[in-house]
Amino acid sequence: MDDRPIGVFDSGFGGLTVARALIDLLPHEQLVYVGDTGRYPYGPRSAAEIRSFSQEIAHHLVADEGVKMVVVACNTAASFALAGLQARHTVPIVGVIEPGLRAAARATRNGRVGVIGTVGTIASGAYQRAAAELGLTAEVHCAACPGFVEFVERGETGSDQVHVLAERLLAPLSDVQVDTLLLGCTHYPFLARTIADVMGRDVVLVSSADETAFDVRQILEATGLGARGGAGREHRFLSSGDIGWFVEMGGRLLGPELASAEPIGLNGTSQPVEEPVASPRSN
Ligand code: DGL
Question: Is 0.90 topped by the overall pTM?
Answer without folding.
Answer: yes
